[in-house]
Amino acid sequence: MTKILMVATNVDQIADQQTGLWLSEFVEPATEWRHAGFEVVGASIKGGRIPIDPKSYSNELPRVWDGVMEPIHDTTKLSEINPESYDGIFFCGGHGAMVDFPNNKDIGFLLAHFIQNDKLIGAICHGPAAFIGAKDVNDTAVIKGRKVTGYSNKEEKESGLEEDLPFLLEDQLQEEGASYEEGEPSSENVVVDGNWITGQNPQSTHAIAEIYKEHLQ
């Protein structure tokens, strides 16, 4: 069975604001992929229950999401993951990812495996923060020369957290040599570059889930 590792943030606060995973960026792809017969495993740097950004859901969650949310109630620690077991990796967004994804050795180790074995790598919104600081075997940034997207500077300025983040994602992706492709704010934008599939924002989640699925079938 095709197996996908979905990585979420453990960070629940930035400055004085609650944050965490942007819920739809896990649940919508997980729903799509489960319906396609894929197995989804939730993971995070620390493991355990994933904090959810309160702005990413209302009190009434869709009933169809109930079972799909199980993997984020008790995630596996990244350090305990055997990448050989997975066909693809996907980094979910939410502002918390800007804090714990960059420059993380466990993420770097996993990315190295997926790159060397030509496996599928995906990320949505703030999820591409996972690529920041990750190096290949030649000590070169893994995203140097790659076409990617992610939450744009324009979108970040509208979020209200711009001043509290360690960096702006668009700027840092370009700083590490990526070819950043910006779409309109809050509009669907998915960029495919070989085995790398990135989406700009929550509005891109359904499209990236479909494209990612097609690459695994």
Describe the structure.
By secondary structure, this protein is an alpha/beta fold. The protein has a single domain (3-216), classed as Rossmann fold. The protein is built from seven helices and eleven strands. The chain has helices at residues 24-35, 70-73, 97-100, 105-116, 153-159, 169-175, 205-216; strands at residues 3-7, 13-14, 17-18, 39-44, 76-77, 88-91, 120-124, 147-148, 179-180, 190-193, 196-199. Helix 1 packs parallel to helix 7. The model has no long low-confidence stretch (mean pLDDT 95).
Largest sheet data: 7 strands, mixed
What helical percentage do the residues reach?
Answer: 25-40%
Shape: globular
The CATH class, by name, is: Alpha Beta
Name of the CATH homologous superfamily: Class I glutamine amidotransferase (GATase) domain
Q: And the CATH topology?
A: Rossmann fold
How are the elements arranged and paired?
Elements: E1 3-7, E2 13-14, E3 17-18, H1 24-35, E4 39-44, H2 70-73, E5 76-77, E6 88-91, H3 97-100, H4 105-116, E7 120-124, E8 147-148, H5 153-159, H6 169-175, E9 179-180, E10 190-193, E11 196-199, H7 205-216
Parallel strand pairs: 1-4, 1-6, 4-5, 6-7, 7-11, 8-9
Antiparallel strand pairs: 2-3, 10-11
Helix pairs in contact: 1-7
